[in-house]
Specification:
globular, mainly alpha, 482 residues, 0% strand
Amino acid sequence: MPLLPTIEEEGKLSWLRLMWRYRLQFQSMTAASLVFVGSGMRLAWSIFDTPAGKFSNSYGTHNLMMSWFIGAAFGALLAAIFVQRVTKNVAYTSSGFLLLVAGILNLTLPNHFSSACYSSVSVGTAYGFSQVQALVTGSEVAHKSIRGMLLSCERIFLWLGVSIQVFYTRLWYTLESGESGHTLHINQLHGVLLATLGVAAVIMTLTHRLESPLLLLRQERDMALGDTLKQLHGQSQSGTELLRLREDCRQLHNARDWEQFAEVPVDSSWYRISRRILPLLKVLFLRCFAALALSLPYNRAFLSISGHGLECDMNCLYWLAFCGLLGSLAGALLVDWQGRRKLCSLSLFVAGIVIVMVGGVFEHLESVKKTYFDINLQAIALLMLLFEIIVAAGVAVPALVYTGEAFSVAHKARCLAGILICEQALHLSLMAVAFDNHFKGSVFFFTFGGLSFTFGLLVFTLMPETRQLTLYECLLKFKKVP
């Protein structure tokens, strides 16, 4: 009779049985997921719902659209200071209260410009707090067989928030056309939903208080560590299995720095720098590429094409939001089954082919200056939707999972915060380009395609496969140069 369950026995469990077996691990992400829904709604309000019609001043509109990303970068910067030093409740309750404040501002001052900006900054800060904390805690509490699915909750619920916002906005204006008007402003409804999500996030944080085993180990709370492992991995776990889980935590906690893995003298400055910088750069470039599919230039290009190609009575961005949600769900189911590297590299190659086709058709339309309905417009809109699904499923989800696996305990929070800040800086840069009238869509798409092929090759050759590995084993994979 074997002492430990084998990987094959674990792999025979279906997704639903795995989710039920490790349900407390998913419950630990509930508060963060509610914050991600609210953040997605505000992101959609700023970008997908394009507030250009809400405020006449174009300069003010630009500031309003950028405020969410500024808040996210600020939240990540603050999260780097306290995440991994205090309980996760600090980040999640703070995020919940920030959503509550943003909701109250929208409810009381629905048409006030300064109120809208402060509300966006508040929600963005909540997102920065929660993403850093969720990736740190989620990667540390998750069993190796469902870690990818657990961490992908960030993408799923962010896109869910975007989809909810664009759906009820469309429904609101559709119903408004047949009525004399609404007693509640649509921005006030947005505020009510944000406040509700904030209160729910605070309640769920106080209800599910299971901490990261590594935080308990750092605080030398051995009894709490044993109880937490037993709850997270199921009460039916044998004593031998719990002992193995405890030793995994101790092994990861002791390997607090990259120098722990040194196979050459640690006085080699190049070796020390490579241990710290190269994994960060690998994950950063992958995350930034995935961010391009959520950027303002991509959304505006789709908006300009889909209005004629798909003949929408309003803007067609809700199709883009639903494709992002569908792709994230598919990626969550595939990332622990097919693995990270194979899924990501294949998706990048296919996405590159699709987006180069989009760029070619876009260049043709720019040269002949067609603005009426054409089969080319319909084709390009459908290809852009396909590209969104591929990137959401095969690039954004594996990139997020890699982010939670690539860094040692000592540097994880700071590395995650740095990646998120760089991601927001990229978004702000692309928005500044999109605000410029000289932006050319075909150049953007051809550049996008070239990057897709390049990153596909780099992922295939340089990124490790971390499926079904413990976090300590993931660090051993990432330690190699390149």
